Amino acid sequence: xxxxxxxxxxxxxxxxxxxDAVAIVPYLKTLGxxxxxxxxxFTATSGSTHGYDVTDHNEIDPAIGGxxxxxxxxxxxxxxxxxxxxDIVPNHMAASLENPWWHSVTEHGQDSPYARHFDxxxxxxxxxxxxxxxxxxxxxxGEITLxxxxxxxxxxxxxxxxxxxxxxxxxxxEETIANTASDASLLEAxxxxxxxxxxxxxxxxxxxxYRRFFEVTGLVGVRVEDPAVFDDVHRLILDLxxxxxxxxLRVDHVDGLADPKAYLNQLREAIGPDTYLVxxxxxxxxxxxPQDWAVEGTTGYEFIASMADLLTDNREAAALDQAYHxxxxxxxxxxxxxxxxxxxxxxxxxxxxxxxxxxxxxxAATGSFSDDAVRDALAAIVVQFPVxxxxxxxxxxxxxxxxLLRDVGTSAKSAGSADPAAIDHVLELMLADKPSDWTAEFxxxxxxxxxPVTAKSVEDTLFYRFNKLIALNEVGCDPAEPVGxxxxxxxxxxxxxxxxxxxxxxxxTHDTKRGEDARARLYAISEEPEAWAAxxxxxxxxxADRVQQLDDGPAPEPDTEWxxxxxxxxxxxxxxSAEALSGLKERFLPYVEKSLREAKxxxxxxxxxxxxxxxxxxxxxRLFAPDNRAFHxxxxxxxxxxxxxxxxxxxxxxLIKLTAPGIPDIYQGSEGDDLSLVDPDxxxxxxFERRQAWLEAPASSWSDAIRRGxxxxxxxxxxxxxxxxxxxxxxxxxxxxLTVRGSKGDxxxxxxxxxxxxxxxxxxxxxxxxxxxxxxxxxxxxxxGDTRIELPAELHGRTLTQCLxxxxxxxxxxxxLADVLKHCPVxxxxx
Length: 831
What we know:
With 831 residues, this protein is of the alpha/beta class. The strands form eight sheets. Strands 16-15-14-5-2-1-20-17 form an eight-stranded parallel beta sheet. The longest helix has 31 residues, at 629-659. Pfam families: Alpha-amylase.
């Protein structure tokens, strides 16, 4: 297998096509990228902004250039000797009539050849939650009518044209249709004969006859565990791999599959041993990627958690806790909040899935437990789940899963919300050595539920409720985990050498809550929380008259104010012209709305509180008002040190990503400043012309490069040049932490990569805000004094090259940071 040196993620759609990608191939080649890593390219719903709502797995989307455009990109990549990795979506497809398979199922029900392609419970009619009100009311209000489309009668609901099963409309003439188009009795009778049932969209959480992706009813689960379905889904994908046009695959949402390991084995067999393969998988806490999966690793969310661990200051943790508590007026029990969010999610938002599990438990085992007792037991277990899912399969229960389930059972019983005997009853099914068919189905469904509940309750609820330091509220992270440990960071990197040395190392993705440079900046708040709290206090006072007192409380409440000022600090550019402020506002207000709805405290996506949202958005809008000069000046002054520290943290984060065990992944545009907010803000068009100009006219010094915003790009280019020249060093090399000693020892991290006689040493600063001196005035170069790094014996007496400056340094048993960080904030030594 030719492993990637570095991948570059491109987001197709939103105006970015294959031909646009062709245009930047020379730029990516010069940057040192080895593989383009493409978002889903197969045909998706009209106007899709991401491509995960696939409508045809076997067609390359004409909206981004079709097969011809793809072939042009492929040829361009081959000419430049670059590879291509595709993001594939085996778990779900669009539940849209644009999807030919779904259209067939809607029209023909169980008679459709695709009836078993989707994860549908065919014990009843297919529920289609597309109406804005109950069916009978929609008919009475004249919103549903009978029409003719392409010569066939259909049920029309606004722009939706639902096909009618042929035998239910046989012989119906157009004249009859015209005369009875709004006949309520006929419409209801005709609807009753269809294999589907049109329902009010709000009923989906209570009753739905198909498995969905998370809470998205517009995405239906696919039964890719069926060999015939696997073949139909992967036909074009495998053709592209076997033709040599595609060199690697990224599997989206692998935890949603019925049996991830079996699927990956089947996929590996189909693509062969030389195709690079990674999975989107979130690892929680001490969880590791299953070592028997036939993959190179994950897409790298856990690396973000490692960087959070390294770049936050545990010395000020108590002060930050106190500052946040002072704003809230009370301490936060984070675990209680997590459990509360998960309970609401599993019992309300995923009520239909929970009801299905209750039925399966009652069918799988005899027992004297009522449906309510089983429901409570299931909810109690799911609430206590510490990871996304277990991997119990036809081969039995892994030892780690058996231990986890027993621990979960103990915690669920201690919580006191369910009958302990009922909890044991449910867990016996998960742990059974010889499961019946009903038990096997229960296991599959249970494991497909815990992940979505965790994701929606933590990533999309808790992360918007607990705002102490929002840089830690990131995919792959857990704000309850302790941070600020160099030792723990080294342990994680050493573990990667054996667990997934070739997995991706991500810092920004299309799913991250904010861009990598916004997080790098916000980490610095942890160094001086009292100064931040004082600043927030001033800003709240400046805008106190903008807080509206509503019947259900103030809007915004103090916690939301704390969130807003952090979020603004993350994207602040320092420009205060009316045009610049307007641009920030246009990006910020949608983020505010999304944050409020995801928090689900006083508003949410299904039941919005318009008065509350309007009040908070009005407050946020005031932050950008051109006449709010006093605030802008104060904010700019307070955030300036964070911005300077963020530039240092950004270079540290980038150097480590480029040299740690794994394959560095660069999200589109993040070789420049990535100060994006959550999607869709992180999928905006990239100014590649500006980035090309940086390469063509490099800055004269690292300080100049930092000022113009090109330092990260320069670091990437020069480090990837070393990876290109010494691929085995980084693909197969060991990882050795290096000890930093001296007065500034807490402010640096260093490690070595070694393979045979090849060595590379990465040295980078940390906690720059609390480092003495004015970062801005000192050109971002720190005064390291007596701080030294202890070197391995093999390097004593050698001459090392600082790859980022070209300087040669004769070393003994130690090396002074003042010598290696003289002209550049970070160092990459080759010896």
